[in-house]
Design a protein that fits this description.
The complex is a heterodimer of chains A (267) and B (228). Helix content of chain A is 37%, strand content 25%. Chain A is of the alpha/beta class and 267 residues long. Chain A has a domain of 67 residues. In chain A, helix 3 crosses helix 4 and helix 5 packs parallel to helix 6. Chain B has a single domain, classed as MetI-like (MetI-like fold, Orthogonal Bundle), CATH 1.10.3720. Classes of the chains: A alpha/beta (267), B mainly alpha (228). At the A-B interface, helix 2, strand 8, helix 3 and helix 5 of A face helix 5 and helix 6 of B. Chain B: It comes from Prauserella endophytica. Chain B: InterPro entries: AA_ABC_transptr_permease_3TM, ArtM/GltK/GlnP/TcyL/YhdX-like, Ectoine_EhuC, MetI-like, MetI-like_sf. Chain B: It is a multi-pass membrane protein.
Chain lengths: 267, 228
């Protein structure tokens, strides 16, 4: 495997380098730079529509950046080298990159045509080439961890939102990702179901060395679980600090007013 | 009715069912190729699929049938008349059903495809394992309409002397002179066949819905009761 030429040091898992993303005339990311270390839990906060989700979607290769580069684990995500130049990646390269990245969506997106167990086993069998028995073994363990052993034969439609989201977490973990992207995973849930999902995520963050990049409006959760919180606004990271500092003594006025609005609303 | 006339009825019924079933199966093939083609990322694939649907939706089945039976032989190919009938009907109904396929595929929520990408499915696996199983459920009710349209269109083949139900009815009418009775019987006959196909499609719809963990309630207003 060839080394990418601006190879970052091995203690960087995610590296955004002057990433630009536009939707029409609307610039969502303005030469965004940031990095995440392996095993770190980083939370992105900021106003709605500021582009936090776009960052996750770029990492999951659901969108393509207009400029700049993204590297994951020292390899270019949606570019590849050809003749010493960076060119847009082909499907094969993208599939190799996606192996290391998992995502949990706001709307769960379980496959309604598969029962719970198959939702968790299908991708490891198809994309990782696991045997059915291996995949089922792993799926049962994961479903037990998220507290849904008794729902293995249920259809997703028969589950509550919180249960569906826990299946979606198990499904993402079944692919053994190095990086897990959490896109407002509790925003579509009834309030009383949020705690169960967050508890599962905390447990995973504590017991695995997965690198997390999380977009959430659950400030208490962000404070409890994050190693670092980034305040994101107007296409840029405007503040980047450990949670105890960012939530108690935000340095930036914009962070202060945002937290004020979010936390006042919560009280 | 004499057994001689009854044998016309059976032959006609057999050919009508044959035309409907094989027309539907072949039409389904055309519909999936064209419907998925119109959802393709490649412009030329979309173009070919669009030309097919637009042309064959616009052609009257009868004219197409005449073309296959009377014009194709002038180029040196003699199609089996029954096959020509099946082909003409399938090309026509396939063009309609292609739009059903396209619409149903488009209606699968984008989040489903994104989840499949995130789980590293290949484009083919996304289609095969995620998109189609969900889209097919939505296709069945409009396919039922297409199937009934096809059944009714099969009566056109009587004009090129294929002995379908309508052709047999004409023969019986000619030999008995019972015009009113024969045509009334013919209408009832098509109605009963249509009910039979509708029942089968309803069964398929239930099976498909069950695969998504849904149930289709019976009765006209069943859905409303469930929603309430």
């Amino acid at each position: 495997m060839s080394e990418p030429y601006s190879s970052p040091s091995s203690d960087v898992m995610i590296q955004f380098d002057r990433v630009v993303k536009k939707f029409g005339d609307h610039v969502v990311l303005r030469e965004l730079d940031f990095s995440v270390k392996p095993g770190e839990f980083v939370t992105l906060i900021g106003p709605s529509g500021s582009g936090k989700t776009t960052i996750l979607r770029l990492l999951m290769t659901l969108e393509t950046a207009d400029d700049g580069t993204i590297q994951v684990g020292g390899e270019y995500l949606s570019h590849m080298e050809r003749g010493g130049k960076l060119v847009p990646a082909d499907e094969r390269h993208l599939r190799n990159q996606r192996k290391r990245i998992g995502m949990v969506f706001q709307q769960f997106n379980l496959f309604p045509n598969m029962k719970v167990l198959q939702n968790v086993t299908e991708a490891p069998v198809r994309a990782l080439g696991l045997s059915k028995a291996e995949a089922e073994q792993r799926a049962r363990e994961l479903l037990e961890m998220v507290g849904l052993s008794d729902k293995i034969d249920a259809h997703p439609m028969q589950l509550s939102g919180g249960q569906q989201q826990r299946v979606a977490i198990a499904r993402a973990l079944a692919m053994r990702p190095q990086v897990l992207l959490l896109d407002e995973v509790t925003s579509a849930l009834d309030p009383e179901l949020v705690a169960g999902v967050l508890a599962v995520l905390k447990e995973i963050a504590r017991t695995t060395d997965i690198t997390f990049l999380c977009v959430t409006h659950e400030m208490q959760f962000a404070q409890d679980v994050s190693d670092r919180v980034m305040m994101f606004d107007q296409g840029q990271v405007i503040e980047d600090a450990p949670p105890e500092q960012l939530f108690t003594q935000p340095a930036h006025e914009r962070t202060r007013s945002f937290l004020h609005a979010v936390i006042d609303r919560a009280v | 009715m004499s057994s001689g006339l009854m044998s016309y009825v059976w032959e006609g019924l057999g050919n009508t069912l044959l035309l409907t079933v094989f027309g539907a199966l072949l039409g389904l093939v055309f519909a999936f190729i064209a419907g998925l083609g119109r959802s393709s990322e490649r412009t030329w694939v979309r173009g070919i699929a669009m030309v097919y649907t637009e042309i064959f939706r616009g052609f009257p089945s009868l004219v197409l049938l005449f073309a296959l039976i009377f014009i194709v032989p002038t180029f040196g190919y003699q199609l089996n008349p029954l096959f020509a009938g099946i082909l003409a009907l399938a090309l026509n109904i396939g063009a309609y059903a292609a739009e059903v396929v396209r619409g149903a595929v488009k209606a699968v929520p984008p989040g489903q495809i994104e989840a499949a990408i995130a789980l590293n499915f290949t484009p083919w696996q996304r289609l095969r394992k995620v998109v189609l199983p969900q889209a097919v459920v939505a296709m069945i009710p409009p396919f039922t309409n297409n199937l009934i349209e096809l059944l009714k269109a099969t009566s056109l083949v009587s004009l090129v002397y294929i002995s379908d139900l309508t052709f047999s009815a004409q023969l019986i009418r000619a030999s008995t002179g019972e015009t009113a009775l024969v045509f009334f019987g013919l209408l009832v006959g098509y109605g009963v066949i249509a009910l039979f196909f509708t029942a089968i499609m309803k069964l398929l719809e239930r099976m498909a819905a069950r695969s998504l963990g849904r149930t289709v309630p019976s009765g006209l207003f069943g859905r409303k009761e469930v929603a309430a």
